[in-house]
Amino acid sequence: MNKFTTLTSIATPLDRANVDTDAIIPKQFLKSIKRSGFGVNLFDEWRYLDHGEVGMDNSKRPLNKEFILNNPKYKGAKILLARENFGCGSSREHAPWALEDYGFRAIIAPSFADIFYNNCFKNGILPIVQDNSIMDALFAFNGEIGIDLDAQTVTANNETYTFKVDAERKRRLMNGLDDIGLTLQYQDDIKTFEKTYFKQYSWL
Amino acid sequence: MAQTLYDKLISAHIVREEETTSLIYIDRQLIHEVTSPQAFEGLQLAGRKPWRIEASFAVPDHNVPTTERSSGVSGIEDPISKLQIETLDKNCADFGITEIEMNDIRQGIVHVVGPEQGATLPGMSIVCGDSHTSTHGALGALAFGIGTSEVEHVLATGCLWQSKSKNLNIEVTGILNENVSAKDIALYIIGQIGTAGGTGFAIEFTGDTIQNLSIEGRMTLCNMAIEAGARVGIVAVDAKTIDYVQGRPLAPTGTEWDKAVNYWQTLHSDEGAFFDKTLCFNAEDIKPQVTWGTSPEMVVAIDEYIPNPNNAKNAVEKTSWENALNYTQLTADTKISDIQIDKVFIGSCTNARIEDLRIAATVLKDQHIADNIKLALIVPGSGLIKKQAEVEGLDKIFTQAGFEWREAGCSMCLAMNADKLEVGERCASTSNRNFEGRQGQGSFTHLVSPYTAAKSAIAGRFC
């Protein structure tokens, strides 16, 4: 997993509430058995005017110029600004895979759906929760935004806002740690647990 | 100390506690073809083996065709769907994981098959790379959806790191109105609390209305907990739960059964247990529900009108309503029962159990779908439900009414297989999500109960 320490970038403002993971990456792209290559189909139904399918040459597809991702002003943005309940719906990790593959490393929103929020941390993406009033300020500001995970701050327009993040998630994200490797350090604890557990719940 | 059911279930599974997170032991991992291939690949690349093979139980459901299947997986027309199912078959064979394959009569939607086979038992911790895993909470299990990285983590370690959710008690009391079912309760609650109303919470559904629901009805309700933002929806174990589990192929027997039942009977919130929040609803207030927009919270009763964005509570909601009306090509203040539909879908992990089919059959007996209905589909939740329905003669009622009677799978709930809506088509659907494009790009989904879907099929409009 990619480490996350600091990030400075312009931000793409996606001014919609309840953006679901079906919108982030439509189901036809979930048929892939790979983990990469989803970025070109990020927000596919909003981003292109035609119907997207796996295996199309996306560079030849007609773009929806109205959609914010297609605004040249936000080309190369690594931060996504969003509204309430971002990432709701399906648990598909293809959603953070698509966001990461496209180039987003941080998402700032007033709230996130639980499963999506969790999935972000597994893929080197930092989801940041900020109050609606701060979100309004960030949406209104068009310049570069700075994020410092260690300091837990977002800086924009000469203002610095703090944010909360679980200490363990922060540690793993800052060091790009492999969750499974870490858990396997506790395999003796797991084996000890199993002994007592299966004695008590012997029908399992 | 008095504990909630959720607290009890978590406590029973804690392997190790850290400051803000705990390592939780997982009893059962359900696997389907869409969210598992990358997890198996990760495991192989790291040279790791599954921690406990018996914990896993797999079934293909999202991509399977619901039409003719006599040529097996090799007969699936879409090569990418076919590859995904072949990959599941291969991964399960390679790792020695129990899989119910596509042409097995027990095959079906993972959240229907798990409880049906007794792979879901009360008190278990259950995960699956699918948000509707909350369904299994209806049996007093701790069940929630996870992403693919966590699927790999559970395969490799048998455990998962979890931060505890807060406890939300949703109490529903009173007698349900006629023709109102668990689906209407779920949609009504989501309409009241919003799709983020349960975010960060585990919901326990309590009250006499919930106790009076069948296990199938409780599964429908817990299934929709995620549409209210909660990963976990649970109902306490009672005599109905134990009756439902008894005799299932993977349920314990003999003295182990007695021992299990003794434990399961403790799976309820203690008197005086602390809930971070309690919300009470009156069953008599709930009428048949129909969604009108692109989020399950955009819902009204069958005798109501599409709301006007001018009456939205804030600017964000106003924009959401305007976007939704723009997408669904509907006008504010339209009576919901004046909206004509093109297709009807009865199925999905929400509403494809035998009870759902029986309700639909009661409505459809000696009736016929309206002329404007281009396609009406009934997709049972499993091959065994299909067989049961056929024993009861329900299939005849459906086909005589003009419905197509299909093989089990997720089908048009998310349209990953060939069952999808065309651009501009409007569907009365018993599934769980009405997001833009969910059932096919440019199509419109209205979530309803099986009763309302069947009635609306006959009327050709919401009814």
From TrEMBL, chain A:
Gene Ontology molecular functions: 3-isopropylmalate dehydratase activity
Domain of life assignment: Bacteria
Stored SUPFAM superfamilies: LeuD/IlvD-like
Enzyme Commission number(s) from the entry: 4.2.1.33
Aconitase A/isopropylmalate dehydratase small subunit swivel domain sequence ranges: 1-132
Subunit and interaction comment: Heterodimer of LeuC and LeuD.
Family: Belongs to the LeuD family. LeuD type 1 subfamily.
Name of this protein: 3-isopropylmalate dehydratase small subunit
Natural source organism: Candidatus Thiodubiliella endoseptemdiera
From TrEMBL, chain B:
Keyword Membrane found: no
Cofactor-binding details, from the entry: Binds 1 [4Fe-4S] cluster per subunit.
EC number from the UniProt entry: 4.2.1.33
Matching Gene3D superfamilies: Aconitase, domain 3
Domain of life of the organism encoding this protein: Bacteria
CDD domains: IPMI
Binding residues annotated for [4Fe-4S] cluster, in chain numbering: 349, 410, 413
InterPro entries: 3-IsopropMal_deHydase_lsu (IPR004430), Acnase/IPM_dHydase_lsu_aba_1/3 (IPR015931), Acoase/IPM_deHydtase_lsu_aba (IPR001030), Aconitase_4Fe-4S_BS (IPR018136), Aconitase_4Fe-4S_dom (IPR036008), IPM_dehydratase_rel_enz (IPR050067), IPMI_cat (IPR033941)
A family per Pfam: Aconitase
Pathway involvement of the protein, from the record: Amino-acid biosynthesis; L-leucine biosynthesis; L-leucine from 3-methyl-2-oxobutanoate: step 2/4
GO biological processes: L-leucine biosynthetic process
The entry's keywords: 4Fe-4S, Amino-acid biosynthesis, Branched-chain amino acid biosynthesis, Iron, Iron-sulfur, Leucine biosynthesis, Lyase, Metal-binding
Positions of the Aconitase/3-isopropylmalate dehydratase large subunit alpha/beta/alpha domain: 7-460
Cofactor(s) listed: [4Fe-4S] cluster
Reactions this protein catalyses: (2R,3S)-3-isopropylmalate = (2S)-2-isopropylmalate
Signal peptide: none
One GO MF term: 4 iron, 4 sulfur cluster binding
Subunit structure, as described in the record: Heterodimer of LeuC and LeuD.
Family to which the UniProt record says this protein belongs: Belongs to the aconitase/IPM isomerase family. LeuC type 1 subfamily.
Role: Catalyzes the isomerization between 2-isopropylmalate and 3-isopropylmalate, via the formation of 2-isopropylmaleate.
Protein name: 3-isopropylmalate dehydratase large subunit
Species in which this protein is naturally found: Candidatus Thiodubiliella endoseptemdiera
